[in-house]
Design a protein that fits this description.
The complex is a heterodimer of chains A (398) and B (112).
Chain A (H helix, E strand, L loop, with lengths): L1 H20 L5 H14 L5 H18 L1 H6 L13 H7 L3 H21 L1 H16 L2 H14 L4 H19 L8 H19 L16 H18 L7 H11 L4 H27 L5 H9 L5 H32 L5 H40 L9 H12 L1
Helix pairs in contact in A: 1-3, 1-15, 2-3, 2-14, 3-13, 3-14, 3-15, 5-6, 5-13, 6-11, 6-13, 6-15, 7-13, 8-17, 9-16, 9-17, 10-16, 11-12, 11-13, 12-13, 13-15
Chain B lengths: L2 H25 L7 H4 L5 E14 L2 E8 L2 E7 L11 E11 L2 E11 L1
Parallel strand pairs in B: 3-5
Antiparallel strand pairs in B: 1-2, 1-4, 2-3, 4-5
The chains are: A mainly alpha (398), B alpha+beta (112).
Chain lengths: 398, 112
């Protein structure tokens, strides 16, 4: 039993490393494959398949830091779309950006797991209270995010177009894995193509240690856990949007604090969605939907095993991410960015063609074009989450 | 490519793509499967068969559909109307896995 659990965790870490390092390859897709495989191989008990998915999901939130920091770096002149992580990359501190993110992920995960008994009680009581208002809350928060922008009309246009695309794509019954081409185009391929078009180069990177005030560290972790918990009730809201709202609430985080917050949110979101499944029987993301499909009865014992899995996967992922980012930061400025980007686009296109067919390729082209339009309009990418938010809003308001 | 040209081109492609996807959704037909073949896939299918049982609970309908090749459990997240035990129907839906077993998540059911 113990050895099988360790093997399942190790398998999940290997998969999470692969999905995390491959831009555009989402864990939901691999989770679906595991569910399908588990159904075919009856010798593999569903518990181990679920452990592998949880381990993969947590690992992914650590490893995906590397491509998100070092790839898709925009034109530094486009101030509105330059993220704090990219500002650090321009200063030659990409490695520090990875350290800050991993620090945020690991410490926030420990804090959130320690607070899980409290969250379980809150989730159980709050779930019924907010159920009827989720659509309204999502509209209010979206308006807040748009008002926060300097170019509000552009942000509204991108949100509306992404929403329309999301409604069409998620309503296509014959399209397999609709999220794969939709999200890969909006956030992956488009960013890489913009990078190729602007000839963006990455300056030589230094391996500087993490330098951040202790007060900022604690504040960022507190905001990651609080905002991550609040985000568990808000389907369709991405970590980047919750991070913006969290940074508004906990002011004075600065660039480095914001990077810790985003890193923490991604992992907390995943860990707390497991708590949400246990406490309220609600699956908040694709990976957890996959877990709920193979583990319809989520016992207290399995919940404890799942929490321990999160901790083990997080510990190993922290080491893996730091070691790999050392290598990447050392060599990234020497890599031909154009060739690398084209290779990644080719891989994404191939995966989409295999998983979603020719319909998926049309979705990929459409969503990539919209992603490029968003970048060219110098509008923050988080407004493209309208592709999920609008369908979710319509579902809750219907 | 110049920024303005790229913006115009990308907006035009995204809007044209959305229109194309919308038209395709409205006009494409789901492939018809026998139940035995449907049980081997995980996509969206159309099956024709006889309703062997219907049960309603909390606004959810549970059906069993059968044809010459076998049977499949189906779930409709709504109250089913127009079909009863013994009637024939065309059923559109997605084959998914629940509790380790294949089931049909019904999108549309048309009595024949």
């Amino acid at each position: 039993m113990f050895l099988q659990t360790i093997a399942a965790i190790a398998f999940g870490i290997a998969l999470g490393t692969f999905t995390g390092l491959t831009p555009g390859l989402h864990i939901n897709l691999v989770a679906v494959l595991i569910v399908s495989l588990a159904a075919k191989i009856s010798e593999v008990p569903s518990e181990y398949a679920a452990i592998a998915i949880i381990s993969m999901a947590i690992t992914h939130t650590f490893l995906d830091t590397i491509p998100s920091v070092f790839l898709g770096v925009p034109d530094p002149d486009k101030v509105a779309v330059v993220l704090p992580t990219h500002r650090l990359v321009f200063e030659g501190k990409g490695y520090e950006a990875v350290l800050l993110t991993v620090f945020g992920s690991f410490t926030s995960l420990i804090a959130s797991i320690a607070a899980i008994p409290l969250f379980v009680i809150i989730f159980k009581h709050l779930q019924d209270l907010v159920k009827g208002y989720i659509g309204v809350i999502l509209i209010a928060l979206t308006l807040l995010l748009i008002i926060n922008e300097k170019k509000r009309l552009r942000a509204t246009a991108i949100f509306a177009l992404s929403g329309a695309l999301g409604v069409i794509v998620l309503g296509m019954p014959l399209l397999k894995e609709p999220l794969l081409p939709l999200l890969s185009g909006l956030f992956g391929v488009s960013t890489l193509l913009i990078g190729i078009n602007t000839d963006s180069t990455i300056p030589p990177q230094r391996q500087t240690p993490m330098q951040v005030d202790n007060k900022i560290k604690y504040k960022s972790i507190a905001s990651a856990v609080t905002a991550g918990a609040a985000g568990s009730f808000l389907p369709g809201m991405g970590p980047s949007q919750i991070a913006i709202l969290g940074a508004k609430l906990f002011r004075g985080l600065g660039d480095k604090g914001y990077v810790i917050l985003v890193g923490g949110l991604n992992t907390v979101n995943m860990a707390l969605s497991i708590a949400m499944l246990y406490a309220a029987n609600k699956a908040r993301n694709g990976a957890i939907v996959a877990v709920s499909q193979i583990m319809p009865a989520f016992s207290r014992t399995f919940f404890l095993i799942a929490s321990a899995t999160c901790l083990v996967a997080a510990g190993i992922s922290t080491i893996l991410t730091i070691l790999l980012s050392r290598k990447v930061s050392k060599h990234i400025s020497k890599v031909n960015y154009k060739t690398l980007s084209i290779s990644i686009i080719a891989i994404i296109t191939l995966v989409v063609a295999l998983m979603s067919g020719w319909l998926g390729i049309i979705v990929l082209i459409t969503s990539t074009a919209l992603g490029i339009a968003c970048g060219e309009m110098e509008t923050a990418k988080n407004h493209m989450m309208g592709c999920l938010l609008v369908p979710v809003m319509l579902f809750f308001l219907a | 490519m110049k920024d303005k040209t790229l913006l115009k081109l990308s907006l035009a492609i995204s809007i044209a793509g959305m229109i194309a996807l919308f038209v395709l959704t409205e006009t494409m037909e789901a492939p018809e499967y026998s139940i035995a073949d449907a049980l081997k896939t995980e996509g969206y299918v159309k099956i024709s068969g006889t309703v062997k049982s219907v049960r309603q609970s909390n606004g959810i309908s549970f059906l069993t559909i059968a044809d010459d090749s076998g049977y499949i459990d189906a779930v409709l997240f709504d109250e089913v109307t127009g079909v009863k035990k013994g009637s024939t129907a065309e059923v559109f839906g997605k084959v998914s896995i629940y509790n380790g077993k294949k089931q049909l998540e019904v999108d549309k059911i048309i009595p024949t």
